[in-house]
Amino acid sequence: MSLTRRTALLGGSALGAAAFSGWSAKAATAALPREYPFTLGVASGDPAPDGVVLWTRLAPQPLAPDGGMAAGDVQVLWQVATDEHFADVVRAGSARAKSEWAHSVHVEVEGLLPDRVYYYRFRVGRQLSPVGRTRTTPPVGAPVSSLALAAVSCQSLPAGRYAAYRHIAERDLDIVLHLGDYIYEGRGPAQPSAGPDRRHLPFKATTSLEDYRIRHAQYRLDPDLQAAHASVAFLCVPDDHEVVNNMAGDYGANGNADPETFPRRRAAAYHAYYEHMPLRRSSLPSGPDMSLYRRFSYGDLAEIRLLDTRQYRTPQVDGPTFQPLPSDAYDPDRTLTGPEQERWLLEGLASSTARWNVIAQQVYLAAIDMDTADGQAYNTDKWDGYPAARSRITGFLHRQQPRNPIVLSGDVHAAMVNDITLEHDPTSPVVATEFIGSSISSGKGNNALFESALPHNPQVRYYNGRERGYLSCEVGRDVWTSDLWFVDDPSDAASRVRRDVSYVVEDGRLGAQPA
Ligand SMILES: [Fe+2]
């Protein structure tokens, strides 16, 4: 990104009187914030051929429980232009920022042209937001030659700074997939390795709506995260830490949460997640429920199915995280997706005509035996802990052979390139390729264990759990190229970000090869 563009994207300001032309009709506003309200930046998400979601939240005091806003709704004006100076405004309107949604705004713009770059901004009174840049998707089914995407996950604020996001903001990507752990709900360390300013707020585990709002606002104040959101549309799905570690359906961590109170906590967490993500109205939470799995088309080139592997999940089997699977783990009723989402996924894949069929989700789908000797031990929180559900997916891929299945995952805090095999036996047929792009900042506590298990897992073609980073993919008609990027110093926002390796998948050929 040029210096000019970065300045434009980050520079909110107050308007001079002459600058009010091109906005929609003057809107009635109950209680205008006196201080600058766009402290959390802007974002776009869930792009379509004719539109995109534009997001902001009014929060003059972002770390205050109410964001520093008086009770009552506020009208927010918005504009979309073809140029970053807003000489050519093509859409404009107003949206209501409601107290009950923390004065967040989710504008679903329609009537835009496909496959175009647009710029957008918001206005309240004389206060103008930073400018965001976004892009609509190509027409459904239209011939498309390339797609550039990044996949990110796991951005613990106390664990590191966001050089990876700075790097993403400087690139010209079409979309970013956020695969979860956008926030961490735990109290975190009193003296964070990334610096005292990264200590979690509130300094306790988040349980109430107020807690989750403050935690999201604290993360979103990071300038590199704001710059990434302002530069490219995100497709966001949560994992567990947006609510609680190892969440499974109606249960908190490992089934230990109180079933009386957990639905209230999940409702609070999803409410705050919606308030801070550029999601469509179709994802508006209702109590503890939120509709998150969904599909994106990129012309005839790619279909991306985003999964929700937490909300409809059967609890993990009892016992340690890594264990030989007990017989009850094989119960065919045990699920990560729930039957409805599983049917949606498999039926969608069966009828897809896309060249690349992407399954973007949270926990790794590859089978990985973590026993470092001759026994077997599987992580009960991953697909490995739900072998019947895993077999239904891999069996389908093996039988039906949808064209070029690519799985993009998060959660594990390690960069990986995996052959996904039909069975747990790594010599069984390869059915898809999985790419995981390490974590933006979260540490890898059990890296030594992973490294010592690698010799038993030849299907793990590449592994790096020591470094933080992200994945980017250049999708062409004949070749998919995945680049694994790493941050030299995770405590330094200015750190160099370097590409370590690239792997390719060729059209019609299962399995990744080093580029
Ligand atoms: Fe994580």
Read across the widest sheet, the strand sequence of neighbours is 12-11-10-22-23-24-25
What is the name of the CATH topology of the largest domain? Purple Acid Phosphatase, chain A, domain 2
How many structural domains in the coordinates?
A: 2
DSSP strand (E) fraction? 25-35%
User: What is the second-level CATH architecture of the largest domain?
Assistant: 4-Layer Sandwich
How confident overall, as mean pLDDT?
94
Oligomer state of the chains in this structure: single chain
Could you give the distance between the termini?
Answer: 26 Å
Largest beta-sheet characterization: 7 strands, mixed
CATH superfamily label of the largest domain: Alkaline phosphatase D (PhoD)
Number of helices: 8
- In the predicted model, the low-confidence regions spanning at least 5 consecutive residues are 1-10
The helix content, as a percent range, equals 10-25%
Small molecules held by this entry: fe (ii) ion
CA radius of gyration: 22 Å
Shape label:
globular
User: Based on helices, strands and strand pairing, what is the structural class?
Assistant: alpha+beta
- Per CATH, the class of the largest domain reads Alpha Beta
